[in-house]
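Me: I'm a chemist; would you kindly supply a protein sequence with its structure tokens?

Assistant:
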Amino acid sequence: MRTNRIYDEEFKREAIKLAKTSTKSKAEIAKDLGVLPSTFYAWLKKSEVDDNGNIITDNEITRLRKELKGVKMERDILKKAMAIFSKN
């Protein structure tokens, strides 16, 4: 029976970077890292590369979306407050 392993974001990021730069096949890289190929392919599918070439994982994207939502809400509150104070 196999137990579910939890990999940290840094490990995933480095594995994805290796897949993008290595001449080995993705299945070989997954095997070398001790990760199931299906898990590894899922990481690759969910990853994105930003403008600076940094790899962003799915968890980071989710976290950044939540942070953006909060920042937008703060911005809207400040806009309303500014409108109220500028009327006087």
User: Anything to note?
Assistant: The mean pLDDT is 86. The helical segments are 9-21, 26-33, 37-46, 58-87. The two ends are 70 Å apart (CA to CA). The first strand starts at residue 48 and ends at 49.
